[in-house]
Amino acid sequence: KGMGRGGKLPYQKGAAFERLVREHYEIHGWLAVRQPKSQSPFDVIAVKNTIRHLVQCKLAGKIARKEKDELVKMCHKYKFSPVLAWKDKGEIKLRYLDEKEEEFEL
Q1: Are 15 and 43 in contact (CB under 8 A)?
Q2: What is the pLDDT of residues 76-95, one digit of tens each?
Q3: What pTM was computed for the model?
């Protein structure tokens, strides 16, 4: 049984997904760090060579305009690429949140 709105279940699901995304990056040779219970616009920071991602993890793949804008702004400031991670049929999907918004694989 779920815990109703605002219960621990959505947080636990989200946190588990964030850990999965971090591991997904690590498996592909990236340095990846999860920001638990973050109030910042990103959940995972990932770096490989000169590629730098700030990742927002959303199980359903939907990100609010305000959240997206904050992430993009932070990325511009620190020279990172804004990325959205979500789950589709059990697979982790990644998409850049720039002008093209294209999906990519690590």
Answers
A1: no
A2: 999 999 999 999 999 999 99
A3: 0.89
